[in-house]
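Figure 2 data, in text form.
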Amino acid sequence: MTATKHWWRWLVASADERVSSVIELLGHRYVREKQQAMRYSQHAERMRYPQFREALLRIAGEEEKHAGLLEAKIKALGGKLPDVIPIHAARETNSWQYLRTDLEEEQRCAGDLHEDLPGLSGEFPEIAKLLERIEEEGKSHRAQLRDMIARSDPQSLWQA
């Protein structure tokens, strides 16, 4: 449950219920950051261009760092880390498709964040600031991915 989707529940919820909702939200973000890091690492292994490989590994490291920050907040609120289900092996056939998939996932995460921030800003400002910081880095990731997509050949098959 996000604060904005169910704003009326947020208003009538007890402090414990709001903390539980925030832990749930952070847990969801934590799982996504961990899975994105896995996806970037997988895709980096299959990149044809070494500079793209390096860029994806750098982004994967930043996603892991985000997950670590989220983990610390979850634990500080007394929460338990959710299980992270490993993502399936990549099925795309070329570098361009890998990058498109990565960009689409980054955009999906950004959309979720915009729904969640308004409810957090008042009562949990430091968590809102952390999520805003992660989103700022996400904007940078999306720009890097768009640049790599523009510089890659959509017809080039990945060589195993």
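Caption note: Residues 14-151 form a domain with the Ferritin fold (CATH 1.20.1260.10).
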